[in-house]
Amino acid sequence: MSDAPLLEVRGLTKGFGPKAVLRGVDLTLAKGESLVVIGGSGTGKSVLLRCILGLDTPDSGDVLWHGRPLSGAARAQFMDRFGMLFQGGALFDSLNVWQNVAFRLTQPMGARAAREVAVERLARVGLGPEVADLYPADLSGGMLKRVALARAIAASPEVIFFDEPTTGLDPLRAARITALIRGIVSDTGASAISITHDMASAQVMADRVALLQDGRIVWTGRPAEMQAAATQVPALAAFLDPVAALAATPGH
Ligand SMILES: Nc1ncnc2c1ncn2[C@@H]1O[C@H](COP(=O)(O)OP(=O)(O)OP(=O)(O)O)[C@@H](O)[C@H]1O
């Protein structure tokens, strides 16, 4: 049991009506590993994440947490042990920054203690205590991402999910958030699954990359292996150099 991966997806399928989106996804996430799932628009990355989180019910297949199917007690344990950075940040406009960060603290604690934890997490993402009492409407896009990141790590999760963490940021801010995420994952020893279109960010964040295409993981490997693998896997080549891939497509 202790040898089991932290999280494992086995033969996951999910469709909507006649449309098969996931056609047998197999994935493992080791303890402390940062896995980045890439794939074109509409390939089912979000559906995969939703199935893992229990927001969508798979048609078949299993999600295992510490080797146990994610249902009943294992699901309850998992719910306490994961952090999530949603694509748009998904902060509550009516709560101030520290209340947003402390929102998912599972350990019961008074407001003063919760605020202290929130301020500490804000410092970890490069924001000072003066931000704690501001509201989301007062913040820039980059600051909102940082606050959302502070919330994702608030309860010291074992696994953190990042849904398109650099979407909507300019290249410099995207690079900063990417470096911050990589640092947090390395420092805390948390495992991470990120989904992204941003190859620059994937290369920095990933210990391992998995490419989702036609409902399956068609390639997985280390970022340094991607270039060589692209000669065998056209979809990978398209990600690494979309302009060249388009130019090579007849009638583009
Ligand atoms: N609730 C739903 N009902 C019907 N179809 C759905 C539903 N959720 C997702 N889909 C379909 O499943 C497919 C995969 O969607 P998904 O959002 O997972 O793609 P994605 O890889 O995350 O794309 P993007 O990178 O553009 O966000 C799409 O064709 C989408 O329309």
Automatic annotation (TrEMBL):
Question: Which parts of the chain are coiled coil?
Answer: none
Q: Does the keyword Transport apply?
A: yes
Q: Which residues cross the membrane?
A: none
Alphabetized GO MF terms: ATP binding; ATP hydrolysis activity
| Keywords carried by this UniProt record | ATP-binding, Nucleotide-binding, Transport
User: Would the keyword Nuclease be found if you checked this record's keyword annotation?
Assistant: no
> Can you give the residue ranges of the ABC transporter domain?
7-239
Q: Which Pfam families match?
A: ABC_tran
Entry-linked InterPro entries: AAA+_ATPase, ABC_transporter-like_ATP-bd, ABC_transporter-like_CS, P-loop_NTPase
What name has this protein been given in UniProt?
ATP-binding cassette domain-containing protein
Record the organism.
Answer: Paracoccus suum
Lineage of origin: Bacteria, Pseudomonadati, Pseudomonadota, Alphaproteobacteria, Rhodobacterales
